[in-house]
Amino acid sequence: MAHKFVNQIEPGETIDDIYVIRDPILRSTTRGDLYIAMFLSDRSGQLNGRMWQATETIYRTLPKPGFAHIQGRSELYQNNLQVIVNNISLVDSGQVHIEDFLAKTDKDTHQMFEEVRKIVGQIKNSQLKALVGEFLADADLMEKFCNVPGGVKLHHDYIGGLLEHTHSMLRVAVAILPLYKQVQADLVLAGIFLHDIGKTEELAYDMVFSYTDSGQLIGHVAKSLLMIDQKANALRAKGTKIDQTVQDALGHIILSHHGEYEFGSPKLPATAEAFMVYYIDDLDAKISQVTAAIDNEPSDSNWTAWKSALQTRLYRKRLE
Amino acid sequence: MAHKFVNQIEPGETIDDIYVIRDPILRSTTRGDLYIAMFLSDRSGQLNGRMWQATETIYRTLPKPGFAHIQGRSELYQNNLQVIVNNISLVDSGQVHIEDFLAKTDKDTHQMFEEVRKIVGQIKNSQLKALVGEFLADADLMEKFCNVPGGVKLHHDYIGGLLEHTHSMLRVAVAILPLYKQVQADLVLAGIFLHDIGKTEELAYDMVFSYTDSGQLIGHVAKSLLMIDQKANALRAKGTKIDQTVQDALGHIILSHHGEYEFGSPKLPATAEAFMVYYIDDLDAKISQVTAAIDNEPSDSNWTAWKSALQTRLYRKRLE
Amino acid sequence: MAHKFVNQIEPGETIDDIYVIRDPILRSTTRGDLYIAMFLSDRSGQLNGRMWQATETIYRTLPKPGFAHIQGRSELYQNNLQVIVNNISLVDSGQVHIEDFLAKTDKDTHQMFEEVRKIVGQIKNSQLKALVGEFLADADLMEKFCNVPGGVKLHHDYIGGLLEHTHSMLRVAVAILPLYKQVQADLVLAGIFLHDIGKTEELAYDMVFSYTDSGQLIGHVAKSLLMIDQKANALRAKGTKIDQTVQDALGHIILSHHGEYEFGSPKLPATAEAFMVYYIDDLDAKISQVTAAIDNEPSDSNWTAWKSALQTRLYRKRLE
Amino acid sequence: MAHKFVNQIEPGETIDDIYVIRDPILRSTTRGDLYIAMFLSDRSGQLNGRMWQATETIYRTLPKPGFAHIQGRSELYQNNLQVIVNNISLVDSGQVHIEDFLAKTDKDTHQMFEEVRKIVGQIKNSQLKALVGEFLADADLMEKFCNVPGGVKLHHDYIGGLLEHTHSMLRVAVAILPLYKQVQADLVLAGIFLHDIGKTEELAYDMVFSYTDSGQLIGHVAKSLLMIDQKANALRAKGTKIDQTVQDALGHIILSHHGEYEFGSPKLPATAEAFMVYYIDDLDAKISQVTAAIDNEPSDSNWTAWKSALQTRLYRKRLE
Amino acid sequence: MAHKFVNQIEPGETIDDIYVIRDPILRSTTRGDLYIAMFLSDRSGQLNGRMWQATETIYRTLPKPGFAHIQGRSELYQNNLQVIVNNISLVDSGQVHIEDFLAKTDKDTHQMFEEVRKIVGQIKNSQLKALVGEFLADADLMEKFCNVPGGVKLHHDYIGGLLEHTHSMLRVAVAILPLYKQVQADLVLAGIFLHDIGKTEELAYDMVFSYTDSGQLIGHVAKSLLMIDQKANALRAKGTKIDQTVQDALGHIILSHHGEYEFGSPKLPATAEAFMVYYIDDLDAKISQVTAAIDNEPSDSNWTAWKSALQTRLYRKRLE
Amino acid sequence: MAHKFVNQIEPGETIDDIYVIRDPILRSTTRGDLYIAMFLSDRSGQLNGRMWQATETIYRTLPKPGFAHIQGRSELYQNNLQVIVNNISLVDSGQVHIEDFLAKTDKDTHQMFEEVRKIVGQIKNSQLKALVGEFLADADLMEKFCNVPGGVKLHHDYIGGLLEHTHSMLRVAVAILPLYKQVQADLVLAGIFLHDIGKTEELAYDMVFSYTDSGQLIGHVAKSLLMIDQKANALRAKGTKIDQTVQDALGHIILSHHGEYEFGSPKLPATAEAFMVYYIDDLDAKISQVTAAIDNEPSDSNWTAWKSALQTRLYRKRLE
Q: pTM value?
């Protein structure tokens, strides 16, 4: 039976399906009765859930967060839809259709990763080659790299999104680097490969997409820089020379690739390579965001709904 | 004998060379003597010139502007260098080394234009093809297109600069369009070809680079749109159908290609094609600007001087 | 019987009235049943409408958009009011009370237009006179000019709004031009008359107020400039001389009359005439917006609700 | 003999003329010799002056600031022109041509003030009438009002400038108030009359235009509000009723008449009257600023120099 | 019986409790029946109330605003909760639990005020001492000072909030002034004591927190300045000398203590004392706002909800 | 003999003193003669120097940069003062009065450092204590920490400036932390101690103050974060537990302590501790900057010159 997505639930429906439980809290009413407040979510969004006549015992069994089979019914409360939960039983993640909870790229991640590996394999500078190799050799990290979404909301917000975005950026770089001979290709390729690597630590994506605590406090820009420093130090400990100037040139690309202070870059681009990574990143993100918005527009109108991140509606009509 | 550039003149030198005279004015001193104030310029900059004991007859012979052989001497006046002009004789533009006055692209304009023609020749949509063809068939306009600078100051500021910039952008588009299959290639190619075509009317470049009156009042963005409208109307008058929707999709790219209101775009990009032209334009302009600044830095320092347009100094050191 | 405005419908009401149908889409439920989603609107706003058990035949008969007699009932769905449509029958526009759908100026449009004609008749410069005359002689355009709203939302948002706003601005100009003798009156009067003429193409106002596709892509500022160019070219084709300098001085007023880049002006005012048109436009729009908000405030409070476009609440109390 | 303006002095000239001495300081060289540093100024600008072999006795005689007959010679020092002062003798202000030091309106201030008095005489509201009358009855203040400049730099920067600006604004208001019947004329007229009255305390204009200490610390906006409060309290002390609501409606116009926070308005306009005063103020200031810049441009060019306050050059060519 | 807070009312409840009635309006339905629209509020928020079958007699008896016993029932109308009022009876403010309507500081206001009095008692400058004393001696004003909230929404938004905030700021100043010996302590202490004194006139707090008309038109910054001027004038009238320079130095602190134009400061800080008051104000406000948000977060999450005033979520986890 | 500071050199002087040579370049004139261009600098600024008739041999001996005894004379060239260098002889840094080249704090650095050590010694949390201890135990780093300036230009721009600023901030924190009991003192103290520690790598200060290449590319904010990560990893390698949550809470303070994106903070403050460090940093910097500007104003005016970083002039008059 098809999963009932939370954005499709209407008031007065019977609920009998699996959802992710998040942030359960045990509270007491003004009369002193215990109840549990929680969020129920899947890939389409989240709803408030409330279990009356709860006990501390039940509360203790709840995952924070986790998958659970929910039985109850939907209702309106203060103009918001909520679910009155009658029964909760935990569900093993092996039993769920994970795609109901986490959107996923429709591209082949294995093939994309092989192409990424091949493109950065073209790097000739021995120190950058060693640094990139140290990342490629970290199997745990590379598995995360292949799975983490590109973001929580704006673009490439699905499993494999970071890989898809990085892969696409690398292909753009390979296509245009021959046209700009003064730009140092090795730095651009290494810079793209690692520009958002810190998202592997910034984002959580096991049940729903969210930020880790560490991710919210530090951010992927600084985290990427830290990871490069750690890999460089690991190489140095093994006797491989990594000059500070090489590390800084790469680090500068990471720190400036949002292009403007107001977008969280602590440094503005100061090299041709940093400018190139910034523009390729922005180009690939915006084209992806715009084409997704146009494809997913539910109406038949020539225009999408207003997109506040772009401060415009988007025009959907194509040339004939 | 090599031309003495105005930015190389020191106080107390004898001047005996050809310069462009601009904005001559006949004035009288507080004692009632007539004198002529003017600017003397070449590609390196401009200086104030002053001819004492002038007459209205001399003033009437002066070009506004034009080339002239200047004899006199340099001096400091109110802390600014100026040239006291003793003698002026007009010079025919055929006699001057035009490259002393107008910087020029070091690429082959004929070859670049042929490549531009070839790339836009790939456009398949019959209406866009007709529209682009109408521009290509306008020999006077195309000659201007091959010669006009890309700007007065920031980037591609030399004869042939617009062609070089447009040519480079088209090559980038050809390289990356296969990677973004949802983006309509015909619109991107036509949009790039025409994105700054209005600069042919906005900029003057016969003796020095400057804005025309019409260019300052209207700007190249609106002028490009007007030129497209005029060519479309000319085609319609000849019986070729140009749908308003096609013209608008192209016009939108022109009007939004600066990307933000504050950079003079009266519309924000609302199609994937408009975003692509905007990013390719900005990428090509910035890479050109950055590499030129790094190449032309006079010092041996690892950093250029502060670049206020980029809000940073630029790092010049390359990987070894 | 009085029309039931959509912003007065409560849940659970029986609906039996004429509305504008917009953007109907034929969709299928998860069970495979067909239904039609649409918007129902009048001058007070719009609601979602849904017709279950629909067929493709019904769908094909629906106007996109158009007037229709709707029978059904209202209900809450996901916290939003929607109308379940049981029956739809098309209605000829001649049968509807158009004022239920489109607000209209309460001034006499004929009289206002005659005054506009009289005021711009004072223009002495022969070229501007010819240009303005070419617009006045375009009967279709002048009919639109008398009917198009001044905008979709902020001010003069009713049939005849552009005429009312232009008329009021011209009267202000006539009143203050004698006080600023250095300002060229002819340019100011022609500039005001044509400053928003492009709204005749930017806005649609046959059933509800909205933007045309062309209007959203190009905008009324650029459209006004294009229309002036077309009229000037038409005059030239008829042998009437229109200097480029005259056209540019007028065009500059059009392009700069929003006063700042962030409000969509691609040029900043660079003449006294451009500044005067900008301030008269802004003054008339704001006074109209403020007095309308104060008059229409539903409460008896001394203050209106927060007006986000003005970043303040408005004070309604008058001196005694 | 004509005054030698400081912006006309060249290096190496003999100086023998009257200037304003400002900010004299007694200092000692590294060798221990005393000298006096000072500024020498007139309406055209200021220069550094230096008197070597000075004594404390001489220093004590110097005005801070004041008029003085200066004898010496000009020279370059660290690339700046300065005057070596050999002799200083004080000059009574009665002996100087004050117009060499302070620019003055070329309009008739007596006549303008009479018109101002006549226009505000139309105010019907008894409390506003009383308040305005209290200002008119303050002869010392009205004399300052007739003489203070409208500003130090941007517009109406000459003796009588505030009067000229206020007079012009009142005439605009009289011309357009009949067109906006909902706007309360009494508040607009009183608001304009008093909008910058605090400049009488903010600016000093006895020898050169400058800010008073109090003016720089508090500003004319807040000072105008304080002066209205003081006059209202004086009236109340005399038994004339001034309602707080009347005073607040007027005070709000004062506090919001710069229109935006970034221009020093602590409040945004929240009444039609406040918007009208704001726009009339800005219109009159900008038209005055633009026409002055166009008239005073020294070159014959169609364009003025870049005006950073307006972020553009101004176009000087008029229709024929 | 505990008060039923308006933010806890669900649809379909019977209402029988005391609320504040605000802005009652007598209106007629389309059928001509009279009804009364009003707001019902307490410290938790407000709801629409509607009394059908009303009469002008009932309307006249209603307080505008005031406490009333309301009997009726709650329902959803156009997706908003409203209360259908069947019966209204006025209630004397002596009968209500005022804390149900107005939040209050949990600190001891008497003790805080004594500490404030003691700290400003350290001021040595005789004129500032006199000025501060004049405020302290105004018993009505001091009572308001002890009760007015610090604001309507952002921080210290409860009875006694301004006192608590001022008290805390003074304690910070006392702690750090010894570390900055060049900063004039007297000015800082007087500046803090009076920095928001105008809030006593800007805010109303008898039944709910709101702005007075005068407060919205003039604002607490300008009102504080006016109050200082009035007290200074009162002292002068009594023969106590208050130099304009002292008053201006203090006034400057008031006018610049929001630190930036965009936050409503008409002046930027220009003295060390003004900077110190600005930073202590901002520090105390932000720490209070952040710790309150962290304490009041209803969920158990490590992060609060998004705080738009701070443009971030807040991290709640403490070190162990 | 006293050092002749470069900002005191006039045209035509004989030069015979020690300066820092920076960025020497060997160039050839248009006639093919070799010359050396260089900068000559001391703590007061820098000048262009030029040695004619140079040889490659001389060029090779020059330090880049370094101290040198310069003999020559000063002259004006293109309106700029430059020094014609006749003779250069290298000077050992031991022979120079370093205070002629680098300004230094007038406080006792040893005593300040001991107080810093004592204050951070109050930290109770064992992990933060260990982390801070690891920094204190790094003698080389602590020596740099005691000597590096606080910045190149704005505030604390002298040897020992970072220590003085950090020391002052810690004293402020100690004074006010007891007043904010909910704020975690350990995090604030550790955060202040390390907030700018990366400046030890960002700034060079051996001969003149400047940025290192690494400093300009990466910046002190990111560098401070990297140094904390390295020390934490070093501790972990030694078996000391440092939780990621502790490191992140501290790292967040570092990354957000500039308070706004536009000032180079990649994160906005999200904890009370981060807000406190941000405000103490800004308070201490601004008070230092303002009092220094007031103290160093060369004129006797009540106002300093315009300070563009503060967008105001500063008022220098104190209460009597």
A: 0.90
